[in-house]
Design goal:
14 helices, 12 strands, TIM Barrel, globular, alpha/beta
């Protein structure tokens, strides 16, 4: 099987020749791998990473304001600045454009983006090329996450509790744009897109960030609308949800997600064997290789044991699993551990 055939088969829970793999990594880690293998090396090919390809439209909306060096601004008006950590650099949000909005009138004064700000005319040709060898992913629909960065994390968490009318109006405005933006992309690439993300982050390290009641009233209807849009175009739904998010999973599976990522199995409720047993006949799994302790701080043999642990749990029936780290591989991860991860997956994951 080639990479495209292997990943599609795993998503559809059909037989595979080996467990397919994917790689998510920080830029610093990617540079470490190039330093090891050579500047011109195709690291993913060397490590037998199947992966995904992607396409996106061109931004043609209003010119973005100039920002100081080390900062950036997106079309939402969210401002980020580069912050250096011991393990690498991240662009951290320091300005959320709707954080101070108190009324619906405040929300209406905001310059909401429209689908007209994006040109999809070149997407089809790019998609035809991108899907030749890889499964093609396009789109990112995440209402809770967008709520977080447009209103600020703390404000977004208390919005539904303090002002339900304002929150519903905000989410309607937000999600109407997201829906139309993706509808146009899907139309431009009709018949070519394999997977789209309808995703969010409801879990923390120890439990849910929001209640199931808040999820069902405020976010679930929008997620369901996005999932139906994907299904109308024959697109599989990839759902990313960090941390302890088990409480939401029955709803999400019933709504029609096809792939669950990243499965942080060290968090409460995220036991891999239990998830496979309860949901493995309806969804496939992506991720799971432990990335807080084992990948950065374990030995190569401990990494290999972790790979076997994940394959035994999620590919117990010979399919339904794409092995990957449970988040971006961080800059402090030894190259030897990355190599051990993908070598073991390539060897042990054969059927």
């Amino acid at each position: 099987m080639n990479s495209r055939e292997r990943v599609l088969a795993a998503i559809e829970r059909k037989p595979v020749d080996r467990v397919p793999t994917d790689m998510w990594a920080t830029k610093e880690l990617e540079n470490k791998l190039l330093g090891h293998f050579g500047a011109d090396a195709n690291v993913q090919d060397i490590l037998h990473v199947d992966g995904f390809s992607s396409v996106e439209p061109s931004y043609v909306g209003p010119p973005l304001p100039a920002v100081p060096e080390g900062e950036d601004i997106d079309f939402w008006g969210v401002r980020r600045r580069r912050v250096e950590y011991a393990t690498g650099a991240y662009s951290e949000i320091y300005h959320s454009p709707l954080q101070e909005a108190k009324t619906i009138e405040d929300l209406e004064r905001y310059n909401w983006p429209t689908a007209d700000w994006f040109d999809c005319s070149n997407m089809r040709a790019a998609a035809q090329e991108a899907r030749k060898e890889k499964v093609l992913m396009c789109g990112y629909m995440a209402p809770f996450y967008a709520h977080n960065y447009l209103r600020g994390l703390e404000q977004s968490l208390i919005d539904p509790l303090l002002d339900s009318e304002l929150t519903h109006h905000f989410l309607d405005r937000l999600c109407d744009f997201i829906y139309e933006h993706h509808r146009r992309m899907f139309e431009a690439c009709e018949g070519l897109i394999d997977v789209a993300q309808v995703t969010d982050d409801y879990g923390s390290q120890t439990g849910p960030l929001i209640s199931l009641h808040v999820f069902r009233e405020f976010y679930k209807p929008h997620l369901q609308r996005f999932i139906r849009l994907c299904k109308d175009f024959g697109i599989k739904v990839f759902h990313h949800d960090d941390g302890s998010m088990r409480a939401f999973l029955p709803d999400l599976v019933e709504m029609g997600i096809d792939i669950l990522n990243p499965i942080q199995w060290i968090c409460p409720g995220m036991d891999m064997v239990e998830l496979k047993s309860e949901f493995g006949d309806r969804i496939s799994f992506h991720g799971a290789v432990e990335n807080q302790r084992i990948l950065p701080f374990g030995t190569p043999e401990e990494v290999r044991a972790e790979v076997r642990h994940c394959i035994d749990a999620f590919a117990s029936d010979g399919t339904g699993y794409i092995l990957a780290p449970c988040h971006n591989i961080q800059a402090n991860t030894p190259v030897e551990n990355v190599i051990a991860m993908y070598e073991e997956a390539h060897q042990y994951g054969r059927f």
